[in-house]
Amino acid sequence: MKIIVDAMGGDNAPLEIVKGALLGMEHWGVEVLLTGDTEAILRALRDCGHDTIPRGMEIVHTTETVEMCDDPSKVFRHKKDTSMGVGLTLLRDGKADALVSAGSTGALLAGATLITKRIRGIRRAAMAPVIPTTGGKAVLIDCGANAECPPEYLLQFGFRLIDQRDVPGRILWECEANELLEDSYRLDEYARIHAPLMCMQYPYVKYQRNVPFKVNQKTYNYTGLSYDIDRMEQIADVDKNSPAYAAGLRPRDIVEKINDQKMNYTAEEFSAAYKGFITNTMKYRDPKTQFTDANGFKRCMFWDTFKYSQVADAIQKPGNKTTYSYLYYYAPYINPSGNNACTFDIKRGKNKMEIIVRPTIRRSVTVEVK
Is the pLDDT assigned to residue 205 strictly greater than 70? Predict the structure, then answer.
């Protein structure tokens, strides 16, 4: 097996990358093709005690590197001779069996999609690391390559249910959905068709007919902001591929107000106000929707669809400190006008500014078999 290694990607490259490549060759007996600056790679080899290129290793010289600050969607158009891009091209042309890079994850995903191409039938690539579990190992899909994975993409990845209680590692049920699906399905449609079959195929048959299940759909606004739990008004991080970053918000910005709701409260004050808000607005919830959440709270209920206007009024009351209600600021839930824009009043150093963020609406769907 021959593996292409992006010698210039990752921290302390190329030295640490070359060290890893040498260890891989020794441990697994694979051949390695390093892409990157030849002189820098040769210096790293000398630092590792190799005055010449070891048997089973070759170097393909490149003159450019993908930097972490490079735009993943544009880097391969502007930089034609990067160690990562050349490596992906070699992989596409059948010069090796796999590629490894510790460089920019976003660039690697974009390059794999645009240069090497996807498996036929897969519309979106996914990161799938092997992670340790109590009974061995499992593959995690998706671990972050996609900021959002719609249910139809998850169906393409496939499903596998594994026993970790009685016979650890035993496959209870699996479906390589990509091979079986001829049309696109929503997750609730897929569940209606396949949930009964999944339950019938368990080694411990529990259901004989009419398998009951519930599909839950949650909708929220995505801005890409993370806050500092110790200073709730301070932005800790901003996803570079998010609406907030595009609008101009940056880490360490101090948020004074969001939609005229003040932010100068502690986490404890926000939590206390939220508990009070929940208690005072229970009368606006629909008892017919009562369910038990993952934390065991039995009185969870959805809002009564005929009382959205009262909910909106309650959220606007300053005493409820509902600053984060912008996450649910879409019609008709809170914002009857349908204007999906949030106004952030921020302070950056000595400068104050008003930034308007237009979040993207995201939806998550789960299926619960009763």
Answer: no
Report the DSSP beta bridge partners of residue 88.
Answer: none
Q: Kindly state the tokens that stand for 348.
A: 């950056």
Is residue 356 within 8 A of residue 341, CB to CB? The reply is yes
Matching residue, tokens 């929503």? 186
What is the identity of the amino acid at 133? T
pTM above 0.90, yes or no: no
Burial readout 166-184 (b: 16 or more C-beta within 10 A, e: otherwise): eeeeeebbebebeeebeee
pLDDT above 70 (res 35): yes
HEC per residue, the chain? CEEEEECCCCCCCCHHHHHHHHHHHHHHCCEEEEEECHHHHHHHHHHCCCCCCCCCEEEEECCECCCCCCCCCCHHHHCCCEHHHHHHHHHHCCCCCEEECCCCHHHHHHHHHHHHCCCCCCCCCCCCCEEEECCEEEECCCCCCCCCCCHHHHHHHCEEEEECCCCCCEEEEEECHHHHCCCCCCHHHHHHHHHHHHHHCCCCCCCCCCCCEEEEEEEEEECCEEEECCEEEEEEEECCCCHHHHHCCCCCCEEEEECCEECCCCHHHHHHHHHHHHHHCHHHECHHHCECCCCCCCCECCECHHHHHHHHHHHHCHHHCCHHHHHHCCCCCCCCCCCCCEEEEEEECCEEEEEEECCEEEEEEEEEEC
For residues 36-52, one letter each, b for 16 or more C-beta atoms within 10 angstroms of the residue's C-beta and e for the rest, the string is bbbebbbebbeeeeeee
The size of the chain, in residues, is: 370
For residue 63, is pLDDT > 70?
yes
pLDDT at position 255, please?
A: 92
What's the rounded mean pLDDT across residues 310-324? 82
HSE, side-chain direction, 13 A CA sphere, residue 8: 23
Distance (Å, rounded) from C-alpha 296 to C-alpha 292?
A: 6
